[in-house]
């Protein structure tokens, strides 16, 4: 059984034909990147996968469950972290996680919340209201909330948009850990390097269809073989920035 | 409601109640305007108003003040619901395997609790301002039931507003006409003192029936026909607003 199977998916908003026949298969335990520019339909696809939107035509199976006829089973088997922080700012970070853990009927919500706080480096801020968090902390809390309950499929809609480089690398690290523990991750991104760094397979969504799909190596084959040029290897600005601010992990060091 | 839905509703109500505990000003501001109005009417205008009855003016107008309290209190429900809709919270809740109705009921039950506290505050100040009731325990229970039903019905109206609003201001704007409605009723002056057309409207709008019922219960005169008119209005409004809320919710949350 595939983690995600999409056949001939169509979706329009009034006159706007956003998805025009999308086919997609995501294997369990893999990291799958959906690459596309703004307005390509990435979020629409993610929302259909998570039953927030209904498809106009086509079939969508998530962990073998049909989103149209078994939405409850679909929701039980995935978790979504949307593009905009879905956090209750009046509650503390810990209370946000506790609420999710209880709604997801975790046997020991307290422990589940504390473990996630620890993992996302939020233990110190746990009892502060989420509205006082910095952007990076909010994004981490948001990701943590998406992982409550340990669903076998995690959907991340632009997980690193708006993050500083350190938080971005930290997020990548967490995504790799998730995949290593057997969770399937589907993420959308508009950053080419993010797809390159993380994904087992990459699909390019453009104008409502997937125009190309495959591993990074497959996609590379589409262009003529690399020509060899001699270029002095200068550190990138990212290398310099991370070196200066003293991050423990460099981009390469974060590779698992 | 299934036990799973109850479980979800309890959790989401607790979440929403926490908002109120953390910003008690929402209750204070709900209560303060009606209290100020009450004091103004009792100690400034009241002397010039002839209600044609022997009861003191504060006894006469308290029911109208209570309705105004509810009308301004439910605006916070649409405000909180609007925030859930505009921030990502609603998407997250909807992507969870929880009962969908619990998302709305959490807000509605919170409204009942918050308005009950505001109403008690206003009634407390009314006592200080000289309000005295001749009501029996049973009368008081009937008063509580009427206020609860009014809060419930108006809260579902607030839910419609919160779900359909495009801006924060729009979310609470619906409450202004509701707050004004008691002024064109028997709440502050007898309707027969009004021009004919206005009096007709006042006599046939629901606030007059509700206010008359509350007044006769509080003065210990028992129930009259107005209680049935009130019940009919409230049940009708409740059914219509509840149904429309569910319709809007389904439409807003389905692509």
From TrEMBL, chain A:
InterPro entries: AAA+_ATPase (IPR003593), ABC_transporter-like_ATP-bd (IPR003439), ABC_transporter-like_CS (IPR017871), ABC_transporter_ATP-binding (IPR050763), P-loop_NTPase (IPR027417). Pfam families: ABC_tran. Its main location: membrane. It is found in: Cell membrane. Keywords: Antibiotic resistance, ATP-binding, Nucleotide-binding, Transport. One of its GO terms (molecular function) is ATP binding. Residues 4-232 form the ABC transporter domain. It is a peripheral membrane protein. The keyword RNA-binding does not apply. SMART domains: AAA (SM00382). SUPFAM superfamilies: P-loop containing nucleoside triphosphate hydrolases (SSF52540). It comes from the Bacteria. Gene3D superfamilies: P-loop containing nucleotide triphosphate hydrolases (3.40.50.300). PANTHER family: ABC TRANSPORTER ATP-BINDING PROTEIN, ABC TRANSPORTER ATP-BINDING PROTEIN NATA. Belongs to the ABC transporter superfamily. This is ABC-2 type transport system ATP-binding protein. It comes from Glutamicibacter protophormiae (Brevibacterium protophormiae).
Automatic annotation (TrEMBL), chain B:
The keyword Membrane applies. It is a multi-pass membrane protein. It comes from the Bacteria. Coiled coil: none annotated. It is found in: Cell membrane; Membrane. Signal peptide: none annotated. The keyword Transport applies. Pfam families: ABC2_membrane (PF01061). Residues 25-252 form the ABC transmembrane type-2 domain. InterPro entries: ABC2_TM, ABC2_TM_bact-type, ABC_2_transport, Nod_factor_ABC_transporter. Keywords: Antibiotic resistance, Cell membrane, Membrane, Transmembrane, Transmembrane helix, Transport. Its main location: membrane. Belongs to the ABC-2 integral membrane protein family. This is Transport permease protein. The lineage of its organism: Bacteria, Bacillati, Actinomycetota, Actinomycetes, Micrococcales.
């Amino acid at each position: 059984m595939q983690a995600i199977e999409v056949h001939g998916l169509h979706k329009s908003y009034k006159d706007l034909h956003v998805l025009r026949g999308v086919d997609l298969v995501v294997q369990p335990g893999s990291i799958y990147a959906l690459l596309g520019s703004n307005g390509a339909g990435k979020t629409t696809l993610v929302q259909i996968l998570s039953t927030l939107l209904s498809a106009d035509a086509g079939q969508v199976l998530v962990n073998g469950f049909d989103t149209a006829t078994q939405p409850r089973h679909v929701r039980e088997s995935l978790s979504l972290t949307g593009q905009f922080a879905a956090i209750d700012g009046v509650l503390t970070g810990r209370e946000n996680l506790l609420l999710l853990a209880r709604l997801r009927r975790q046997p020991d919500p307290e422990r589940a919340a504390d473990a996630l706080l620890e993992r996302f480096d939020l233990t110190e801020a746990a009892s502060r209201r989420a509205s006082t968090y910095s952007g990076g902390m909010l994004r981490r809390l948001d990701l943590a909330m998406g992982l409550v309950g340990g669903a076998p499929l995690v959907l991340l809609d632009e997980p690193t948009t708006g993050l500083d480089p350190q938080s971005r690398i930290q997020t990548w690290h967490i995504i790799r850990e998730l995949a290593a523990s057997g969770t399937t991750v589907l993420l959308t991104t508009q950053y080419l390097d993010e797809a390159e760094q993380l994904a087992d397979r990459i699909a390019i969504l453009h104008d409502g269809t997937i125009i190309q799909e495959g591993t990074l190596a497959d996609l590379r084959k589409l262009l003529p073989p690399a020509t060899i040029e001699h270029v002095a290897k200068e550190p990138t600005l990212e290398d310099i920035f991370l070196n200066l601010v003293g991050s423990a992990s460099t981009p390469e060091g974060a590779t698992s | 409601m299934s036990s799973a839905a109850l479980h979800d509703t309890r959790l989401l109500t607790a979440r929403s109640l926490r908002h109120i505990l953390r910003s008690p000003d929402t209750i204070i501001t709900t209560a303060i305007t009606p209290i100020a109005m009450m004091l103004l009417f009792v100690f400034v205008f009241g002397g010039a108003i002839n209600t044609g009855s022997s009861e003191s003016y504060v006894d006469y107008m308290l029911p109208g003040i209570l309705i105004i309290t509810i009308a301004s209190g439910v605006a916070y429900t649409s405000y909180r619901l609007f925030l859930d809709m505009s921030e990502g919270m609603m998407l997250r809740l909807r992507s969870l395997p929880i009962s969908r109705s619990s998302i709305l009921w959490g807000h509605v039950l919170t409204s009942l609790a918050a308005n009950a506290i505001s109403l008690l505050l206003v009634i407390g100040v009314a006592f200080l301002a000289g309000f005295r009731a001749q009501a029996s325990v049973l009368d008081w229970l009937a008063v509580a039931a009427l206020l609860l039903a009014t809060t419930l019905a108006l809260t579902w109206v607030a839910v419609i507003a919160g779900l359909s609003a495009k801006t924060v201001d729009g979310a609470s704007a619906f409450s202004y006409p509701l707050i004004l409605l008691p002024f064109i009723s028997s709440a502050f002056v007898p309707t027969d003192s009004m021009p004919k057309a206005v009096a007709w409207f006042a006599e046939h709008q629901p606030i007059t029936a509700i206010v008359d019922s509350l007044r006769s219960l509080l003065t210990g005169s028992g129930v009259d026909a107005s209680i049935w008119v009130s019940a009919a209005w409230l049940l009708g409004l409740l059914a219509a607003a509840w149904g429309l809320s569910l319709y809007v919710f389904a439409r807003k949350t389905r692509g």
